[in-house]
Amino acid sequence: MSSEECLAGAREAALILTGSRHAIAFTGAGISTESGIPDFRGPQGLWRRFDPSLASIDYLNTDPKGFWDFYINRFNTLNNAKPNRAHLALAELEKLGVIKYVITQNIDNLHKSAGSINVIELHGNYTTVYCMKCGAQYPFTLALRKYEEGENPPRCPRCGGILRPNVVLFGEPVNEINRALEVAALSDVVLVVGSSLTVYPAAYVPLVVKEHGGKLIIINLEPTDYDDYADVVLHCSASEALSAILNHVKGIMADK
Ligand code: NAD
């Protein structure tokens, strides 16, 4: 699809956003692919190369060394990534008062580095690790250094327990989901960016907004199962779509 075709809905999306009372963004791995972080299920997705059970609590419990061998590569990729134009546009939309919250499935910290303030990270954040025995928390760089020095699995400096990333693994509860669903229930617009909308309970967030009579805007390179349910769909890259929406929002606000 050409840029012109895929951006046809950008002005309508901007009109919906500027007319909203409480708009939120819901983001998935697709917003960060342009920062060099592979998504899970896209053509270059992580799960096309690895078995998802490598990111499970069962695997961490049974083979912590193997878990860290897998996870350390993720850490390095995430640590080298910078926010792209899509993250920056969402942060600017928040500053303009248009987006009230970003609810993300990503653990890459890129919304916060881009300047978004109200961020709910459903699956945690890679920047810290904690001890599975005493709960002490440390920057992930400590675990990284220990791993690079040959300590696998990396252990807690205080009690010797095994360190683990402060993220939600497969098989673990998503503790932030209730707060996210409360925010969703208050919202009249949800802008979904780069999510396949296949991972639950996270994917309930946009559905709750829609079921409460709100509007759904979807930005994704590929069709999703919810396109027919959406008010506006943009099949463009996240950075292209959000930059165009931001420009329209600024134009609409200047005309008011
Ligand atoms: P997903 O891999 O299931 O879907 C990503 C979606 O983004 C796909 O539908 C794809 O078509 C779309 N996409 C890819 N590049 C895009 C781009 N440039 N512009 C617009 N759309 C694009 O990811 P999901 O829906 O977030 O699934 C949830 C799971 O993925 C969560 O468990 C989350 O923790 C995890 N995840 C996070 C990261 C990260 O932190 N960056 C990376 C990989 C996976």
Write the layout of secondary structure elements.
Elements: H1 3-6, H2 10-18, E1 23-27, H3 57-62, H4 64-80, H5 85-95, E2 99-104, H6 110-114, E3 119-121, E4 124-131, E5 137-139, H7 140-148, E6 163-167, H8 177-185, E7 189-193, H9 204-211, E8 215-219, E9 232-234, H10 238-255
Parallel strand pairs: 1-2, 1-7, 2-3, 7-8, 8-9
Antiparallel strand pairs: 4-5, 4-6
Helix pairs in contact: 2-10, 5-10, 8-9
Residues 28-30, 32-34, 37, 39-42, 45-46, 105-108, 123, 194-196, 198-199, 219-222, 237-238 line the site of nicotinamide-adenine-dinucleotide.
Could you describe the 3D structure shown?
The strands form two sheets. This protein has a six-stranded parallel beta sheet, with helices on both faces. Strands 5-4-6 form a three-stranded antiparallel beta sheet. With 256 residues, it is α/β, with parallel strands linked by helices. The protein contains ten helices and nine strands. Helix 2 (10-18) crosses helix 10. The chain starts with a helix and ends with a helix. The mean pLDDT is 94. Strand 2 (99-104), helix 6 and strand 3 (119-121) form a beta-alpha-beta unit. The chain has helices at 3-6, 10-18, 57-62, 64-80, 85-95, 110-114, 140-148, 177-185, 204-211, 238-255; strands at residues 23-27, 99-104, 119-121, 124-131, 137-139, 163-167, 189-193, 215-219, 232-234. The longest helix has 18 residues, at 238-255. The protein folds into two domains: 1-37 and 84-123 and 176-256, Rossmann fold; 45-80 and 125-167, SIR2/SIRT2 'Small Domain' (2-Layer Sandwich). Bound molecules: nicotinamide-adenine-dinucleotide.
